[in-house]
Amino acid sequence: MADTPRSFQEIILRLQAYWAEKGCAIMQPYDMEVGAGTFHPATTLRSLGDVPWAAAYVQPSRRPTDGRYGENPNRLQHYYQYQVLIKPSPPDLQDLYLGSLKAIGIDMEMHDIRFVEDDWESPTLGAWGLGWEVWCDGMEVSQFTYFQQVGGHDCHPVSGELTYGLERLAMYVLGVDHVMDMPYNDPDAPIALTYGDVFLQNEQEYSRYNFDIADTDILLKHFEDAERECAAILANEQVDPKTGHKIVMAQPAYDQAIKASHLFNLLDARGVISVTERQAYIGRVRTLSKLCADAFVQTAAGGAA
Amino acid sequence: MPDLLIELFSEEIPARMQAKAAADLQRLVTDGLVEAGLTYASAGAFSTPRRLALSVEGLTPESPNTREERKGPKVGAPDKAVEGFCRGAGVTVDQLEKRDIGKGEAYFAVIEKMGRPAADIIAEVLESAIRNFPWPKSMRWGTGALKWVRPLHSIVCILTDEAGAQVVPMSVDGIDAGDATRGHRFMGPDVFSVTSFEDYEVKLKRAKVILRADERADMIWSEASNQAFAAGLELVEDKGLLAEVAGLVEWPVVLMGTIADDFLSLPPEVLTASMKEHQKFFSVRDKSGQVVRFVTVANRETADQGATILAGNQKVLFARLSDAKFFWENDLRVAKAGGQAWLDALSNVTFHNKLGTVSELVDRMAALSAEIAPMVGADAAEAEAAARFAKADLSSEMIYEFPDLQGLMGRYYAKEAGLSDTVAAAAQEHYSPLGPSDDVPTAPVSVAVALAEKVDKLTGFWAIDEKPTGSKDPFALRRAALGVIRLVRENTLTIKLGTLIKDADLLSFFHDRLKVFLKDEGISHDVIDASLAMPGNDDLLLLVNRAKALAAFLKTDDGENLIQGFKRANNILTQAEEKDGVEYSFGADLKFAETDEEKALFAALDAADAKIAPAMAAEDFAGAMSAMADLRMPIDAFFDAVQINADSEVLRRNRLNLLHRIRTICLSVADLRKIEG
């Protein structure tokens, strides 16, 4: 398929169709504020244990410190990642990935695609893996990672994870220089919308809120609440007294870990976390992630008998 | 004699690991083959982003039969001893032979090992090499347990002789060895079989893979140089980058692109750093040294001769340089306003949680620079001003993006802030020397701030007890101490470290560093100890000069003999003093001198005294030691002719007092008691 997509959404639709055709469950975004697609339970939790899994989804991601009031050509505090996770990683994952580039109109005969060493680590998730950043003509278009550890647990089997930075990839494919100028829907549609039409105002509003307005005392309190709630959820008996079933509440607890992580990012953007405190906060979120991973591997989806 | 070809084909191996991995493969396999009794004529290892390959030529077709005899316990020894011997030798009791050894009979085991075909040995050795490969980081994939740098896909392992090629049967974690591989990921993806190393290399080239990393590097370098030259420009040499880029491609295609005029106002170092770190581009400069173009190396040919690829790369570079320019322009605004905003921001940056902020560090450095300035011939106010601005660039946006440019950007920004060239130079040079090959600053203000930076670091980390231990030196304190030593030496500075450093333990750390440093210059530790034992040992230059003069002196005939004479005198004297319970420091009297040799020694000691004292006062160690050398003959003659322990107690005491003069004179130059041998 050499024809070029015409809009941001067409690229997303083509990726969805491609990965659906390759057998992935097309999931919807997780309904919480996260910093990256990896935080979606369909990746973090499902990469644990030995139950096979294949999922693909768009995940809106928030990085408050990257806000630029919509002025920077490619930096945004809210953007989209496309995420694929397959467990166990299939032997032809690289070829599958290259097929997805072809599907969105990147002609392998004309472009220079390279796998350049880039090891991935998420200190807040207690996770790491080895892989590459994928370059197309010198531009990073994806992260490609073989998960080795998540939440402090060794991954057996290993999941293969692909992450596409959708805006940047789409700008490249569509030949757009500023993200806000990118066609969001078909440029010939009766009501043609650019990315800016949809998101410019949001970027301005959130940039101001994130940097100057967010109440740090409240954020801090929310952080501590989430931290407490996460531990409290997991401190419960595994057998539910009401139903008599074993119900480990790994994902509700993980929701709290996600919350804590995002609150930390907001506090960071407000500039109230010193260099030394930073490590301590990251450590606190990691502790939560590990607790949730410990809980999830005791569930059926986590491979417990 | 068969030849062996091995290829381990995987997903992309990080460029920085490839060369060592090829060498490790060669070492592990050839060592294993030799250990198993095979020999070979030659071997070579190769790497590309997707494969490690090994060629071993002239391999013996099988290992030789071996026969070994081992003597065991005596016949009649306890069963346990006999069984243990059998286990060790790998034989059963009924296979043992009894032999007469003169004093009765003993058991003997005869261990005969049949030679094994090379293929069997190779299969074992290769499997072990793969399973125990020393990758800096390795990983699992899929459901497997095998670890490799990235997923391993196929193995070629063939033995080739006159009769043709044979696959060596072996398998690792479900990957069977074969004779098939594939070429370039995009330009030669089809599978093909190979029959020998020559065949392999030729077919790879046909499938658009250059097997040899040095060949790829040469191709890149010569093609890039040619393109630059044709444009009247020059490629900026960068060997590290060349090796890295050669490890990122199997089929290098060199493309030269332009840098938009908007960015030519950026400092060339910023252009180079931005292009190299993010994009792995080479810089191309014009005759004036301005970087005006870049070279990128693609991994494939295209129908449009790389036009699309180059356009893409140019676009990425445009975005990168837009960022860099944005940082530069923001930074210039702050710098032109004097940089105060950066200095203020340093109070929010932690230097070390027990040592306060960078702002506090700057305060300490400023005070220390002013204190050091007069010792190094710098103006105190200027040194203080330089120290105040030295860390300003750490707050700049450019350094946030490119930390490696610290200091260099400080120099640019200091000039923009209207500071003197001297102060600007110190902003860059105060980090030096960083390593043994780094230049030592010579401008007095730079030297003052460089010393202040290092002395503050060392005293600070000593105060909070974060000293280097063993191989751990996370704050590079050894390097800092060595930096101080080099600054002092190469600028011939006289500085009493004791005035700057009160901690005796830290001073002795300096002395240890100095020992390591001087050892590299061939000065042995006892010579250094003899110099360290003298007063003024916190003056590193004095210490070095003394040690060097002493080392030179000890290499001479006179020096060696004088040491013997000194030791003899010192031993006799020390024994007598212990025995008599007195110190013979009353002064010898010439009137009790009996022999000519004794009188001559008196005269020689007087002469030496007259020369050594002023030489020492002038720190002329070579002069002092040459005066000491004049004592050698008189001392030797004295010992030959005179009996110290004379019957007359008066004579004996006078001679002991004379020996005391020898000791005093010699010890005034260096503590010769520490000299070994």
Keywords:
heterodimer; A: 305 residues; alpha+beta; 9-stranded mixed beta sheet; 9 strands; 37% helix; B: 677 residues; 7-stranded mixed beta sheet; 4-stranded antiparallel beta sheet; 25 helices; 18 strands; 51% helix; flat
Please, could you describe this protein's structure?
The complex is a heterodimer of chains A (about 300) and B (about 675). With about 300 residues, chain A is an alpha+beta fold. Chain A has seven helices and nine strands; from the N terminus they run αβββαββββββααααα. In chain A, α5 runs antiparallel to α6 (about 250-270). The mean pLDDT of chain A is about 95. With about 675 residues, chain B is α+β, with helices and mostly antiparallel strands. In chain B, strands 1, 2, 3, 7, 8, 9 and 10 form a seven-stranded mixed β-sheet that branches. A four-stranded antiparallel β-sheet of chain B has the order 13-15-16-14, with helices on both faces. Chain B has a three-stranded antiparallel β-sheet with strand order 4-6-5, with helices on one face. In chain B, α11 crosses α14 (about 420-430), α21 (about 555-580) crosses α25 (about 650-665) and α22 runs antiparallel to α24 (about 630-640). The longest helix of chain B is centred in the middle third of the chain and has 30 residues, at about 305-335. The model of chain B has no long low-confidence stretch (mean pLDDT about 90). Chains A and B meet through β4, β6 and β7 of A and α8 of B.
